[in-house]
């Protein structure tokens, strides 16, 4: 029972603080799949993390309840790993990042392009120079963007309401 709870904690956590829990560390020794998974992200061993993530994906697909959410989970964990590496640098090469994750440059390029355009990662890719530059938005800018977005939503709702009232 306890091992199942630890597996669920490792899979559901968005914090690597799980690694520091003594009780969880004790159980992780009996669960090498989950131990490799959480420690590879914690220790920034990204190539090992991708291999462990593939193993975790197999575990999730076998679970009746988690199978539907496997694709989303794997995607979010890849974004988390990319963000963790990008957070440490202001810029790095596509080659370095591809080598860090043990994948091809083309894969990293298409994957990062997709995540950058959806807003999951704050970076930009210089395809000519082969460089990925991180752009960390400051808190005030983020708050400003949030206020603008909420204001637009409010205006749209008011317009819809005014159309309903005039009819």
Provide keyphrases for this structure.
8 helices, 3-stranded antiparallel sheet, mainly alpha, 167 residues, extended, 68% helix
What does this protein look like?
The protein is 68% helix and 7% strand. The chain has 167 residues and is mainly alpha-helical. A 3-stranded antiparallel sheet has the order 1-3-2. A hairpin with a 4-residue loop joins strand 2 and strand 3 (131-134). The mean pLDDT is 82.
Describe the global form: extended
Radius of gyration, rounded?
20 Å
Major beta-sheet overview: 3 strands, antiparallel
Distance, first to last CA: 60 Å
Number of helices: 8
Oligomer: single chain
State the gist of this model.
This protein is mainly alpha-helical and 167 residues long. Helix content is 68%, strand content 7%.
Question: How is the topology of this model organized?
Answer:
Elements: H1 2-12, H2 22-28, H3 32-42, H4 46-62, H5 70-87, E1 91-93, H6 94-101, H7 105-117, E2 123-126, E3 131-134, H8 139-166
Helix pairs in contact: 3-4, 4-5, 6-7
């Amino acid at each position: 029972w306890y091992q199942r709870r630890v597996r669920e904690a490792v899979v559901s956590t968005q914090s690597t603080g799980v690694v520091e829990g003594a009780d969880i560390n004790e159980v992780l020794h009996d669960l090498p799949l989950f131990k490799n998974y959480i420690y590879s992200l914690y220790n920034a061993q990204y190539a090992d993390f991708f291999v462990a993530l593939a193993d975790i994906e197999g575990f999730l697909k076998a679970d009746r309840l988690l199978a539907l959410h496997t694709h989303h989970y794997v995607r979010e964990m890849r974004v988390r790993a990319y963000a963790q590496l990008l957070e440490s640098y202001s810029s790095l090469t596509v080659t370095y990042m591809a080598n860090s994750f043990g994948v091809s440059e083309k894969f990293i390029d298409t994957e990062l392009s997709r995540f950058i355009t959806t807003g999951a990662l704050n970076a930009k890719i210089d395809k000519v120079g082969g460089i990925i530059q991180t752009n960390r938005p400051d808190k005030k800018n983020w708050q400003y963007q949030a206020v603008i977005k909420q204001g637009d939503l409010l205006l749209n709702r008011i317009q819809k309401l005014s159309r309903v009232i005039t009819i």
